[in-house]
Amino acid sequence: MIAFRQLALQRGTRRLIEGADLMLHEGHKVGIVGANGAGKSSLFALIRGELGADAGSVEIAGGKRIAHMAQEVSAIERALVEFVLDGDVALRQAEQALAAAQAAGEHDREAALHGQIEALDGYTARARAEQLLAGLGFSQSDLYRPLADFSGGWRMRVGLARTLFTPSEILLLDEPTNHLDLDALLWLEQWLTRYPGTLMLISHDRDFLDAVCDHILHIDQARLTLYRGNYSAFERARAERQAQQQAEFEKQQARRAEIERFVERFRAKATKARQAQSRLKMLERMETIAAARADSPFRFELPCADKISSPLLSLDRADLGYPESRILEGVNVSILPGERIGLLGPNGAGKSTLIKTLIGELSPQAGARVPGENLVVGYFAQHQLEHLDLGATPFTHVQRLSPTASDQSIRDFLGGFGFRGDDVFGDVSRFSGGEKARLALSLVAWEKPNLLLLDEPTNHLDLDMREALAEALAAYEGAVVIVSHDRHLLRASVDLFWRVVDGRVTPFDGDLDDYHQWLKVRESEQRQAARDERRPSDSGDRKAARRAAAELREQTKPLRKRRDAAEKALERAQGELSALETQLADPTLYDAARKEELTRLVREQGELQGRVEALEAEWLAAEEALETLEAELQTAS
Questions:
Q1: Basic and acidic residues bias: where (predicted)?
Q2: pTM (2 d.p.)
């Protein structure tokens, strides 16, 4: 499908890829990981033909269509659905040709074009485009509004919908989850697991990579290494490889030292000079093994204010919203010192409204916001990146907050956020999105808050920085409220959840898996309610309704059997995978003596994960086909 043949790529004086020689097969779902600037996006540009290789080649099987995400979506007056439909160029051309044939009265050509549009699945295109937009969080009333009405983040969602709609055998997605909330991310996850083509996905969300990918392509020190399995399997395999590399490095260093001692000892002796020269040549020929290195350059702390109140902040019977609309009613919550709270809820339910009220940006329409005497709020959100001074440096930003702080203390502090050496004095205008996010987060930390409110803090952060943030939050002594689609961060940082839905804020007794199930039940209930509205209400029609129900059960029986069989097989496979992962959690398994056993178990884990993903896709396909058939039969009746 896609082959890299001794591929090399250099940008300026920097080598991004060197000697890459590997193949991605049809149907692979490949996660692309590596440090920021390693060359992930450049690899996509090579595949699309926008960059030329400095050596070697990228070979793609003939006739394969490639769909990829645009990095920006312009604020144009095109309606959302029309913009998504534009992604199918062949369909749009056929529609334009049909309109021209109808205008010219060319009936034979008109008939042929109707057949062409049907072959392109054009008569379901609008419904499919609407479903994609709905899955990514748009309401029915949004679908025919112009793109210009929406913010940049929402336009990126429309761009993602267009990419998914575009017919393709190869799908390239660069950070598709950055502008999604948790609900939309879970929907996208399911969509991608069912995508039949070859997927290449750049992402810093480890749970997303785990759920979607069956291979990981790691870019490190200009080398491309392909690992089988999802991100968790990659981490284990790479840890084993690094341990072996370190052992080989130490062994080689010991051997080099032994040779060097021999040469120093006997170089001057005539009887040993030839042997000494031989040892020197051995040293020259010895291939240097690099020491395994710690990957993450980030280690930082989130300091907390010395004084603290209990509770830190309360909302007392508060109605929240805006002058033109009330979003949440009767909110009664308190945040205590040390609490770790995650906010869950469908898009548009009021999570952002709640956050803005907690920080004091919005005042309650009724009730009260009651801050503690010593409350110090730290707030991080993506829009704060836009308020950074592009003409200033990271050092200047911190110095403005604390003019009396010493230069060294500022430099030491910024070093933990990855700004070292001359980077401390670099212009923010030249920073990447990830660097700006790190700077904005550092400015929040510098203020020593005792209540930290984080609204999607991981957007633009790479895996290393996300892990450093999770570790810093674990050690943070203050209270935390988080809205995030990064499930790894939520699992690592949150102790309790609040659910924001239907105008209320209530405690959610469960974890993220429970929330995912709740979402499915809620969606099912909403679909059922919509079907109920179409059912006959007249008591005289009850017999006909029962007969129609019996016919419905009979017609849907094969699909229900297929779904139930897939569900049972999935449960068995998940049980086997759980037992295998328990074995892999045994620390002694990673001893050198058990290397073959570890290799076998990792291989079996990858196979089981592949089986689980296939069964999940089979179950989802059967469930969706069943729901579609039921809806069609209900409509027909």
A1: 526-557
A2: 0.69
Element (H, E) at 508: strand 504-508
Left (φ > 0), alpha (ψ -120 to 50) or beta: where does 379 sit? beta
What residues are paired with 60 via a beta bridge?
Answer: 2
The stretches of 206-293 forming alpha helices (DSSP H) are: 206-212, 231-266, 273-285
The token pair that represents 108 in the structure block: 């034979």
| Alpha-carbon span 309 to 311, nearest angstrom | 6
Alpha-carbon distance of 137 to 155, in angstroms, equals: 12
- For residue 332, give Cα distances in angstroms to 213, 310, 317, 320: 41, 16, 5, 11
289 and 248 in contact (C-beta within 8 Å)? yes
Residues 252-270, mean pLDDT to the nearest whole number:
67
Domain spans in the chain, listed from the N-terminal domain onward: 26-50+61-235, 236-285, 555-636
Cβ atoms within 10 Å, residue 297: 14
26-50+61-235 CATH fold: Rossmann fold (3.40.50)
Integer distance in angstroms from the first to the last C-alpha of the chain?
46
Q: With CA atoms as reference, report the closest residue to 169 among 62, 42, 40, 44.
A: 62
Question: In 3-state terms, the chain is what percent helix, strand and coil (to 5)?
Answer: 55, 20, 30
- For residue 495, CA distances in Å to 25, 473, 490, 498, 513 come to 42, 12, 9, 10, 14
